[in-house]
Design goal:
192 residues, Rossmann fold, alpha/beta, 6 helices
């Protein structure tokens, strides 16, 4: 019995350590990161419903609109492929949303080949290089900003972040933070 108690305490200690080392920085960076005026805004893709952005994606797009209107960058890159259960690419859905909210079509660059955050940023970086864009503000939800900035740094993108709010749904928010904790652990092990 003593062994089981020690094992339980050991597992609890490891869990608490992981929360301190991984989850707290995700939360802190997600709420304290501030954008800097740049050449472009990169909006990372998320699920779409039919042809419309999901709540998580609308929160990102609304943040990008605020940044664009405040003069943080003259160009917006929307990034995301068409998933197997999506009728159009995430990027196409985002572009339509931005145009419907007053962003000129010629100010939006489409990156519609990426299926994950690493590809979003890698492909957006290539698009930046083709268009002579050197700096970026990355827009994603607060839970996703830390990993996005780490990946951008690994890819050589000079970037700051602008965290979009998290949804008011506690279940969805908790799920996103747990998911990001696991993704950060993988990133630290693999670099992607």
């Amino acid at each position: 019995m003593n062994f089981l108690k020690k094992l339980r305490n050991y597992m609890l200690s490891i869990t608490l350590l992981l929360i301190l080392v991984i989850e707290i920085p995700i939360i802190v960076v997600g709420y304290l990161t501030q954008p800097v005026k740049s050449d472009t805004i990169i909006v990372l893709g998320a699920k779409i419903l039919g042809q419309d952005p999901s709540l998580m994606l609308r929160l990102r797009l609304d943040e990008a609109i605020k940044l664009y209107e405040a003069g943080y960058a003259p160009i917006i890159i929307v990034s995301g492929a068409q998933g197997p259960d999506e009728s159009i690419s995430e990027a196409a859905s985002m572009k339509t949303y931005l145009i419907d909210h007053g962003i000129p079509a010629d100010r939006i660059l489409l990156e519609d080949q990426s299926f994950n955050t690493y590809q979003n940023l890698s492909n957006s970086h290539k698009l930046m290089q083709v268009n002579s864009l050197r700096t970026a503000v990355i827009v994603s939800n607060a839970s996703h900003i830390r990993r996005s900035l780490l990946l951008a740094q690994n890819l050589g993108i000079q970037a700051t972040g602008s965290p979009a709010p998290m949804p008011s749904n506690p279940y969805l928010t908790t799920k996103q933070y747990v998911r990001e904790g696991a993704a950060i652990a993988v990133l630290l092990l693999t670099g992607k």
